[in-house]
Structure formats: C-alpha cells, structure tokens
Amino acid sequence: MKKHIRQKFVVGNWKMHTTTYEAEQLSNGIVDGLGVSDHVTVILCPPFPYLGLVGEMFKGSRIALGAQNMYPEIEGAFTGEVSPTMLLDLGCRYVILGHSERRHKLGESDHFIHQKMVSALAAGLEIILCVGETLEQRRAKETEAVLDRQLSTGFCGIASEALSHISIAYEPVWAIGNDAHHATPKEAHDVHGLIRSKVSKVFGETWAHAMTVQYGGSVEPENAAAFLGQTGIDGVLIGGASLRVASFLAIIQAGILETGAEMQPA
Fold first, then answer.
1. Residue 15 CB: number of other CB atoms within 10 A?
2. Which of the residues in the chain have pLDDT under 50?
3. Which residue, 153, 145, 73, 147, is CA-closest to 109?
4. Catalytic residues
5. pLDDT score recorded for residue 249
6. Helix axis angle, 143-154 to 110-123, nearest 10°
7. Which one of 3.20.20.70, 1.10.10.60, 1.10.10.10, 3.30.300.30 gives the CATH number of domain 8-244+253-262?
8. Helix (H) or strand (E) holding 120
C-alpha cells in the first residue's frame, strides 16, 4: 500500500441559500444516499439559521457539521454576530474562515481572519482556512505574493501542534462561478504545491505533508475526479453543486474512488 495517504475531504458550502424545507430535503437526500464508505470526510456548512435543524438531521450519520463564519469573541455586544461557543453548542465541528466572498465582498482583512483563527482554535473548532488570488492579481503575477501574505498572517504565532486542526482551501477567486475563466487541475496542482511549500518553510516538511489542502473553484461532478486525482489535492470545497443532492453525492463518490486508487499497491 502507498504510504502517507491523506483522507479526501468533500465540503459543501450552502452559502446564503435554502429555506427550512429545502434544507430538510437536501439533508435527508444526502444522508440517505451517502453509503457506508468512510474513505472521505464529508462536511456540510448550512446558513446560520439552519445549523441546529441540519445538525439534528446529521446525528448518527458520518456527516460533520460546519459553519460558514464566526466572530472572534466568546460573547459580548456584537449585534448580528455568532461566537465560536455558539457554534459548538449547535454541534459544529468545523468553521470556514477567510472565504473569498468575505475577504472581497465584505472587506475582511488578513489580520481579522487571523483573530478568528486564534479564537476558533482556542474554542476547539476545526478550521478550513480559505486563501486565493483575484483575476487581477493573477494577471499581475502576484499569486505567490498574495498567498504568502494570507498564509503568513493567518498562521502568525500559531503553534505547529495546532496544524492538525487546520486545513487550507485554495480558492482562485477568478474561477469561482466564472464561465469565462476556469482553473485546470494542473493549475490547481501547482498552486497547492506552492501552498504546501510555504507551510513547510514555516513549520517543517512533516507538518506540511500532513496538512490537508483542498481546492475550491467551481467543482462539479464532471471535473471532480480530475481535481481529486491530482497529487497534493486532498479535497474540494463546493458551492453550487452542494445544493443538489445528486451532484454532491457524485462528488463524494469521486473522492471515494480516488482515495481507493491511492491506496492500491504501487
């Protein structure tokens, strides 16, 4: 068997979609169709109003509950915000931090995202840290500089032992929901290697090799296997396709097959 196989992650981010009825139907469909294979870690991140509802529906299944965001304080006068302890109380195990939409549409800074990381780790949450460049930054050949800034600030002062509670999701902002621009599996592979190299320089090769690095850029059933089959791409962070039961289950199946292929004797 090949050594050092990292389990694939398939993360569904429902963003600001679903009603109560739709969340129930979607959750039921995914739970019923998931199957018994445990080769893939499956995480679903519904909107805040449905975390309790969806979390109850996932009990007894192998689906982990995640949140799309959080505020870096335990409690206080922060109207409209949600704390890490609230997420834990609702059964969340994971939280997405630094998503491109929060960086670029809502103006969250690298420093603010770092504060969230520190708070999430202290509370005991598992972090999915999103990083990535815009189209303008890519055209200006600033991809490496942007990733270096986002990673350096995000991991500032964080102990190497905490890395087992952090995964990275590479989001090429220019490829998300953009029909005119798509990242190829080879392009994603190259940037994932760059990310792992930067982690290695700070924390060492062992920690960098163990870290889960996912891809998040318009993944669909048709291209999931191509991305998941790339060396160093350990999973996918999915938006639109996670809102369709058949599509999401197909991507999970692609992850199961790719993990099985990696586990075969060399």
1. 16
2. 1-3
3. 153
4. 99, 171
5. 97
6. 40
7. 3.20.20.70
8. helix 110-123
